[in-house]
Amino acid sequence: GYYGNALQAASYRNHKQVVKLLLDKGADPNAQGGEYGNALQAASSGGHEQVVKLLLDKGADPNAQGRHNSNALQA
C-alpha cells in the first residue's frame, strides 16, 4: 500500500500508542517499502519527534536508505 505497512502508516500519522504496540508485538522498525521508505522516514517527514524517538529507542536505523536513496536525516 501507500505507506508500506501498518507501522509506517502509524508513524506518519503520529499515532504513538499504535507505533508502540506494533513495535512491542515485533514489528520491524527498519522494514522497507511505501512512499516514505521506512517508519523512521515517515515519522521524520511529518515532524513527529516523539514517534522518531520511540522508533530510535526500538532499533530504527537513522542511516537506513529509504525511498529515493535518502535517509531519515534527510527527510
Please describe the topology of this protein.
Layout: H1 6-12, H2 16-24, H3 39-45, H4 49-57
Helix pairs in contact: 1-2, 1-3, 2-4, 3-4
Task: Walk me through this protein's architecture.
It is a single chain. With 75 residues, this protein is an all-alpha fold. Helix content is 43%, strand content 0%. The chain contains four helices and no strands. The chain has helices spanning 6-12, 16-24, 39-45, 49-57. Helix 1 packs parallel to helix 3 (39-45) and helix 3 (39-45) packs antiparallel against helix 4 (49-57).
Number of extended strands: 0
CATH architecture field: Alpha Horseshoe
Number of helices: 4
Rounded to the nearest angstrom, the radius of gyration is 10 Å
- What separation lies between the terminal Cα atoms? 20 Å
Which structural category do the helix and sheet elements fall into? mainly alpha
Instruction: List segments where confidence is low: pLDDT < 50 over at least 5 consecutive residues.
Output: none
- Could you estimate the helical fraction of the residues in percent? 40-55%
Organism: Lojkania enalia
InterPro entries: Ankyrin_rpt (IPR002110), Ankyrin_rpt-contain_sf (IPR036770)
ANK repeats: 2-34, 35-67
Protein name: Ankyrin
Features:
75 residues, Serine Threonine Protein Phosphatase 5, Tetratricopeptide repeat
Short note summarizing the structure:
By secondary structure, this protein is an all-alpha fold. It has a single domain, classed as Serine Threonine Protein Phosphatase 5, Tetratricopeptide repeat.
